[in-house]
Amino acid sequence: MLNIFTLANGRLVQEEIEALEELSKFQPIWVDLESPTLEEKRWVKQYYGLSIPEDAMDEDIEESARFYEEDNGELHIRSDFLIADEDDPRSVRVAFILNQHNTELRSRGVLFTIHDEDVPVFRLLRLRARRAPGLIEDAKEVLLKLFDADAEYSADTLEDIYDELELAGKKVLKGDVSDELAGEVLGLIARQEDLNGRIRRNVMDTRRAVSFMMRSRMLNAEQFEEARQILRDIESLDNHTAFLFDKINFLMDATVGFININQNKTIKIFSVASVALLPPTLIASIYGMNMQIPEVAELGAGAYPFVLLLMTASALVPMWYFRRRGWLK
User: Fold this and answer.
1) Is residue 237 situated within a structural domain?
2) What is the chain's mean pLDDT, rounded?
């Protein structure tokens, strides 16, 4: 899918391109390629003179491979953006190519973005730029606003994580936690821990990208100050993710502790039962020996009821003692 964005009355206007000839009708500041076809890449190369690198979506982690400037002034940035899907949270790699001086189009530059699927941050910026005139002025502003929206999206997701952990905390800290409830809570905590880790990685990646933009001296004074504010916001998100990791560890330890308590209760029951059955077992062993026992001979036919009564009493007495001491609770 190939979409271009132009400025009209200070607002960002989106146009979906379905043929090469349509590109000549617009002077965009942002060209977005979502899962582009070979034909759409050819259109971009033919009209804008831009060749999309074959490794644009590779998972390189070296800064030199993800943030660099070409000799012709093109700025290349590869950054990960979070998709906080409830069932499948993931990160999407986005390749940015900023042509800062596109004299052929008589514009102040064009931002090209290449990614495999739609990103919530992109939708958020498109919505804001349509409603708020003057929010976007040029291609650099688009790139900066995307990272600003990314930091805000991460902050909103962190708030959702905190709400989920509050719910888990209420379930665990009420006291009576069954194994089924503990398993449910552990699953919830594990999902939030994974999402929190993805957010931490995401904001770290955003920090690197914004820092690179600041070092490249491509920003004017106002944009530079905005970039510094984004970095300050990211710093606060780092502190918040650290706090959530501590809360996650606490809830995890508390839940595992209740599971251990439940297991200890079960083991205690078996231990008490084993001790209570030791005296009857001893009696049965004595009177089951193949030898002449005097009291058995004297009792005659009443020997069998006598032994059963003695075994029952020897089992009930320890159980009564354990219950009195509170060991069966």
Assistant:
1) yes
2) 81
Indicate the pLDDT class of residue 296, thresholds 50, 70 and 90.
low
Residue 42, pLDDT score: 86
Over residues 145-175, the pLDDT tens digits come to: 999 999 999 999 999 999 988 888 888 877 7
- pLDDT for 328 equals 65
Q: How far apart are CA 275 and CA 14, in angstroms?
A: 78
How far CA 108 is from CA of 104, 139, 170, 219, in Å, comes to 10, 7, 54, 13
What's the pLDDT score for residue 156? 92
Are residue 295 and residue 174 in the same domain, yes or no? no
Instruction: Identify the pLDDT of residue 103.
Output: 42
Task: Please give the helix or strand (H or E) that residue 93 lies within, else none.
Answer: strand 90-99
Name the token pair of 73: 């002034």
Same domain, 247 and 291: no
Cα separation, 137 vs 126, whole angstroms: 14
Walk across the sheet containing 67-69 and list its strands.
11-17, 2-8, 30-34, 110-115, 90-99, 75-83, 67-69
Specify whether 241 is located in the same domain as 174: yes
Q: Is the pLDDT of residue 106 over 60?
A: no
One domain for residues 67 and 158: yes
Two tokens, residue 7: 């400025």
pLDDT in tens, 237-273: 888 888 888 988 888 888 888 777 777 777 777 777 7
Domain boundary among 232, 261, 290: 261
Q: Return the residue matching tokens 């102040």.
A: 108
Nearest-10 crossing angle of helices 303-325, 278-287 = 160
The helix (H) or strand (E) run that includes residue 56 is none
Three-class secondary structure assignment of 135-203:
CCCCHHHHHHHHHHHHHHHHHHHHHHHHHHHHHHHHHHHCCCCCHHHHHHHHHHHHHHHHHHHHHHHHH
In angstroms, the CA 39 to CA 1 distance is: 10
Domain with 206 in it: 2-261
Taking a C-beta distance cutoff of 8 angstroms, is the pair 248, 193 a contact?
A: yes
Count of domains observed in the chain: 2
Pairing mode of beta strands 30-34, 2-8: antiparallel
